[in-house]
């Protein structure tokens, strides 16, 4: 099983982030948190890296259904969407989201299947729409 749903864009980083936010919103996901890995690693460790942003996205109805099945599932919710510059190609940005099927595989909880399937459909639609533009 592939751990990520992803696409590759040939655009500026800021445009890729904006397009990703819009695509997520169109599928019912809100961005609750944002972690700028580039800035954090520079500030905390003095390390340089390419632009790398983690968007903490949440679809409340899906999250509610998942925690209704297993309260511990918050540990595995597919909330992080990564927008990162390809370190080998300056004009390339990669957008990735965790494959929701991992929730089912890790927990072996069949009641999570429909939630994971719907989350995967919505995340895949968001990711795929980025490549369509």
Report on the structure:
The protein has 133 residues and is of the alpha+beta class. It has one domain (4-125): 2-Layer Sandwich (TATA-Binding Protein). It is built from five helices and five strands, in the order βαβαβαββαα. It has helices spanning 13-26, 37-45, 60-69, 101-107, 113-132, and strands at 4-9, 30-36, 52-58, 80-85, 93-98. A five-stranded antiparallel sheet has the order 1-5-4-3-2. Strand 4 (80-85) and strand 5 form a beta hairpin. Helix 1 (13-26) packs across helix 5 (113-132).
Q: Would you tell me which CATH topology applies?
A: TATA-Binding Protein
Radius of gyration: 15 Å
Could you describe the largest sheet, including whether it forms a barrel?
A: 5 strands, antiparallel
Q: Spell out the CATH superfamily.
A: TT1751-like domain
Sheet-strand content, in percent, reads 15-25%
Low-confidence blocks of residues: none
Global structural class: alpha+beta
Quick check: average pLDDT?
92
- The CATH architecture assignment turns out to be 2-Layer Sandwich
Residues in helices, as a percent range: 40-55%
The overall number of domains is 1
The geometry reads as globular
The largest sheet has its strands arranged as 1-5-4-3-2
Secondary structure: number of strands: 5
Helix segment tally: 5
What is the ordering of alpha helices and beta strands?
A: EHEHEHEEHH
Distance between the termini: 27 Å
CATH top-level class: Alpha Beta
Protein name: DUF302 domain-containing protein
Pfam families: DUF302
Organism: Nocardia flavorosea
InterPro entries: DUF302, TT1751-like_sf, UCP021774
